[in-house]
Design a protein that fits this description.
Blueprint (H helix, E strand, L loop, with lengths): L2 E5 L4 H12 L4 E5 L7 H11 L9 H6 L11 H10 L8 E4 L4 E3 L3 H10 L1
Parallel strand pairs: 1-2
Antiparallel strand pairs: 1-3, 3-4
InterPro entries: Arsenate_reductase-like (IPR006660), Thioredoxin-like_sf (IPR036249)
Protein name: ArsC/Spx/MgsR family protein
Family: Belongs to the ArsC family.
Length: 119
């Protein structure tokens, strides 16, 4: 069992998530998504596993800075995915995926606990 964590090492929430993974003795791999951005297809798969839409995982300030001003509607889904893949700084973080496919935005203890339990 393993967990993949997409993180930005400068982010305090990401560092806290790594500390939780370490404390739990979890087996995980790190993807520095700013250095190794997800493709639109990868991001689409993650968003689907989260049960969200692409705009739900966009960081509002960073999306505005990137000029991502798109309608929040299904017809714009692919354009959102492409925009977020092109400007990964606008993606919420950290995102963790357990080997069973359980995926969370790990910004709180409950979300982290769900993915660690499935790891």
């Amino acid at each position: 069992m393993s967990i993949e964590i997409w993180l930005n090492p400068a982010c305090s929430k990401c560092r806290a998530a790594v500390a939780e993974l370490d404390a739990a003795g979890a087996d995980y791999t790190v993807r520095r998504y700013l250095d190794d951005p997800p493709t639109a297809a990868e991001l689409g798969a993650v968003v689907a596993r989260l049960g969200l839409e692409p705009w739900d995982v966009a960081r509002p300030k960073e999306a505005r800075e990137a000029g991502i001003d798109l309608p929040r509607e299904p017809a714009a889904r692919e354009t959102w995915l492409e925009a977020l893949a092109a400007y990964p700084r606008a993606i919420q973080r950290p995102i963790l995926t357990a080997s069973d496919g359980t995926t969370v935005v790990g910004r709180d203890a409950d979300a982290l606990g769900r993915v660690i339990a499935r790891g």
